[in-house]
């Protein structure tokens, strides 16, 4: 018997084509791939050689995620044009899904980096607060930002509306956000803790600028920095100690003070694990 005239049992087809018997029976049930021959006495099902070739086509399309309904239409109509259109459509969907996964991976990598940084500070949280103050050059990078007067501002509040606005702005310009959210107080030092209204700017790093008033640069200056761990309502003490230290070291404040939320309330719920970096621009007297 030639190969083309040979018949194959369902078990043999399952083995040759690496398709479960249960799946073959389902294909038979829905009329997608019906065995060519059945023995009347035993009701055993047998496939012919060309059906094995068809099964390979079905399997390949299923691996691409093509629906059984579309596969059935392609197979029954022997429609190569429909197959091509279907494959192109699936490739587009797969590419989109890959991009979404890459975006999720990027978000995870940024969050993990910040959590790792936060854990380092948590391990050293028993150090004297003044010993964590250091002078550093803040690197210059592109940010997307919003700035306006926030009425009845409370430093203990989480500016979730501003933070959400930044994320939406980044989406509007098809940009990925990088790093932590930074709040900058365009007031006199410590004024945000006492005045009802605050000139508040929120920003977050982006890979590149776009045309628009929301884009600017942050950094490029010398700063005294320190770390605050815990409740945000207590951060005034960290500010006061840093400002006192700056004066003692012969520096003066040279710009608005910022807070970088390395591990924020929108990252972890435990208040004792919130990590904020206070950034105070300075220059020599």
Which key features would you list for this structure?
single chain; 285 residues; Multidrug-efflux Transporter Regulator, Chain: A, Domain 2; Multidrug-efflux Transporter 1 Regulator Bmrr, Chain A; 9-stranded antiparallel beta sheet; 3-stranded antiparallel beta sheet; DNA-binding transcriptional regulator, MerR family
Describe this structure in words.
Helices cover 40% and strands 26% of the residues. With 285 residues, the protein is of the alpha+beta class. The chain folds into two domains: 76 residues, Multidrug-efflux Transporter Regulator, Chain: A, Domain 2 (Orthogonal Bundle); 177 residues, Regulatory factor, effector binding domain (Multidrug-efflux Transporter 1 Regulator Bmrr, Chain A, Alpha-Beta Barrel). The strands form two sheets. Strands 4, 5, 6, 7, 8, 9, 10, 11 and 12 form a nine-stranded antiparallel beta sheet that branches. Strand 2 and strand 3 form a beta hairpin. It is elongated. The termini are far apart. The model has no long low-confidence stretch (mean pLDDT 88).
Helices and strands in order:
Layout: E1 7-9, H1 10-17, H2 21-30, E2 37-38, E3 45-48, H3 49-63, H4 68-77, H5 80-123, E4 134-138, E5 141-150, H6 160-172, E6 178-185, E7 198-205, E8 215-218, E9 221-229, H7 235-248, E10 251-253, E11 257-263, E12 275-284
């Amino acid at each position: 018997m030639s190969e083309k005239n040979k018949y194959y049992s369902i078990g043999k087809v399952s083995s040759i084509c690496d398709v479960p018997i249960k799946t073959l029976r389902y294909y038979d049930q829905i009329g997608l791939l019906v065995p060519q021959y059945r023995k009347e006495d035993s009701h055993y099902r047998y496939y012919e050689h060309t059906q094995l070739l068809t099964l390979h086509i079905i399997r390949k399309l299923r691996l691409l995620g093509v629906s059984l309904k579309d596969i059935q239409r392609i197979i029954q109509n022997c429609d190569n044009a429909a197959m091509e259109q279907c494959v192109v459509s699936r490739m587009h969907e797969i590419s989109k899904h890959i991009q979404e996964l890459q975006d999720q991976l990027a978000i995870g990598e940024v969050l993990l980096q910040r959590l790792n940084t936060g854990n380092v500070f948590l391990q050293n949280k028993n150090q004297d607060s003044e010993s964590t103050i250091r002078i550093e050059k803040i690197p210059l990078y592109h940010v997307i930002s919003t700035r306006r007067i926030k009425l009845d501002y409370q430093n203990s509040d989480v500016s979730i509306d501003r933070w959400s606005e930044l994320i939406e702005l980044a989406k509007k310009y098809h940009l990925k956000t990088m790093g932590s959210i930074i709040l900058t107080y365009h007031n006199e030092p410590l004024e945000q803790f006492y005045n009802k209204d605050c000139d508040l700017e929120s920003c977050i790093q982006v890979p590149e600028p776009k045309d628009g008033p929301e884009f600017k640069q942050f950094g490029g200056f010398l700063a005294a920095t320190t770390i605050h761990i815990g409740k945000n309502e207590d951060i005034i003490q960290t500010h006061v100690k840093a400002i006192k230290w700056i004066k003692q070291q012969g520096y003066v404040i040279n710009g608005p003070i910022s807070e970088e939320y390395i591990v924020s309330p929108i990252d972890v719920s435990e208040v004792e694990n919130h990590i904020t970096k206070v950034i105070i621009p300075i220059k020599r007297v």
